[in-house]
Design goal:
253 residues, 3-stranded parallel β-sheet, 5-stranded mixed β-sheet, alpha/beta, 10 strands, single chain
């Protein structure tokens, strides 16, 4: 197959490593790490890149998206004549860990827990992903909007996920953990120790979790198990489910 991969630059090393061993031809394009700070901006950026691929001369069998739902950044992305393939993941943390199950195991009680990785440490801006930092300013009126759009149960799930870090602080039980997800193939680069030093200097509790490139590897090898990847057919759109299992689903364009 001939594939196009559009991914966040936090996966730069992982994606490049997996593409190098893939049996398929894959052309890669990365988006800036900071683009995910505003979901509407990232969504517009991704759709424009998808549209550009559609309009290009190179024929592709599929467009691979190196993202998760990522704060609704990928919700609504539309496929033209080329299918879209995306991991069933809440955000990049799931992809770094290698499965939804491991994300739920370690982040269920605080989905907004700050974490880092090689890509976060070496590429622009903050060296950690802290969802609460960008969420707090936009909380006003959000619940009512989510109820209107997604129903009460889904709205509760979204708000619980978004405000987890904030509620810990309000209750006086601040979660001071700072997680580093260490992909074994990149351990020799020493980013874990750099993250440990930053965490300890800021009074945080450093936690090291082993990472796994299996979701990126499967994505780039064309091994798209429906349980782990969503394939959007031509003319379809990415829809959001807001649960722990399906996460994303295909919708009509």
């Amino acid at each position: 197959m001939t594939l196009k991969c559009i991914a966040c630059e936090v996966f730069y090393r992982e994606v490049c490593a997996c593409v190098a061993s893939s049996p398929h031809r894959i052309d890669i394009e990365f988006t800036p790490k900071g683009a995910h700070d505003k979901s509407d901006t990232l969504r517009e950026m991704l759709q424009s890149k998808i549209d550009a691929v559609e309009a290009g001369e190179q024929a592709y069998d599929a467009i691979l998206l190196g993202f998760g739902l990522c704060g609704n950044s990928t919700r609504g992305l539309a496929a033209g004549k080329i299918p879209l393939v995306i991991p069933r993941a809440h955000d990049c943390c799931t992809i770094f860990l290698g499965s939804r199950e491991r994300f739920r195991e370690h982040f269920k009680d605080n989905p907004s827990l700050p974490f880092s990785s090689a890509g976060y440490m070496e590429r622009g801006g903050a060296s950690i992903h802290d969802a609460s930092a960008s969420i707090i300013p936009g909380l006003g009126g959000a619940y009512e909007k989510y109820v209107e759009q997604y129903g009460e149960e889904n709205a509760k799930y979204i708000m619980e996920s978004l405000t987890a870090s904030v509620s810990h602080a309000v209750d006086g039980q601040a979660d001071i953990r700072w997680v580093f997800i260490d992909v074994p193939e990149l351990s020799h680069l020493g980013f874990a120790e750099k993250c440990r030093a930053e965490a300890e200097a800021s009074g945080r509790q450093f936690v090291l979790l082993p990472g796994d490139m299996r979701l990126i590897r499967g994505l780039t090898r064309g091994q798209w198990d429906p349980a782990e990847y969503l394939v959007i057919p031509p003319g379809g759109r990415i829809g959001a489910v807001y649960d722990w299992d399906e996460i994303l689903r295909a919708e009509k364009g």
